[in-house]
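Second opinion, please. Please look over this fold, written as tokens:

===
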Amino acid sequence: MKTGLVLEGGGMRSLFSEGFFDVMQAEGIKVDGIIGVSAGALFGCNFKSHQPGRGLRYNIRFKDDARYMGWRSMLTTGNYVNPQFAYHTMPLELDVFDIPTFEADPTEFHVVCTDVETGQTVYHRIDHVDDHTLEWFRATGSMPVVSRPVSIDGQLLLDGGMTDCIPLRHFQEIGYEKNIVILTRPKGYKKKPTHIGFLFRLFHPRHPRVTECMKRRHEMYNAELQYLEAEVKKGNTLLIYPDHPLDIGRTELNEAKLRAIYEHGQEKALTMLPILRSFLEA
């Protein structure tokens, strides 16, 4: 039976997920595959590369670096997160992503994106990492309004959370029968309709599917939560979520908050170790 780790996005809220799966790795708890959306993928890749704490580390290291993210990048590149620095210079030169370990580890790794021309979800498995592959990481992490679509292999892509925030169903469809799902919102959270549809039309005038996807996003997300609850009752899914709302913005760079979210994930994992092991061994 193949086991999977499904990682919701949420910007810096996903440091909760990193804290959690870092404890899993330290305790020798393995899965057969990982699928991540947006920041879930950007941090989740560090599980496969065996680099605990890397997401927390580089965000603290570069939090005050104008090359990393901010309005200067937005004005000069059209992206709040600087594409070249964040997705190429940093992982290849400054806080080096361990590509040999990532490629040697047998855990499958998948990212989720959205095709802005069709409005369809795009799932992509990453086995090898190079400059071209790193664009898939950029695409899954590129939020609408504050990012330009990323062109990869003839497709224009943005954040996978536009169309599939919690890709459990997809992972099940490709053979992952038992899954750990880590959310970045607390139990009972329901997404509300967006009130900034005009911004999607303003920043993506040539891609009306972006606006359509974002208008329906709350319906998609809440339906996925219902599906999750049903799968948990069947016993094939273990659901992890923070104990309280995470007091942090998507692009928050306050060091104390970053550390607190990561540590909350660690604490949650430590309390759930017996449950994790029992679930995977059953």
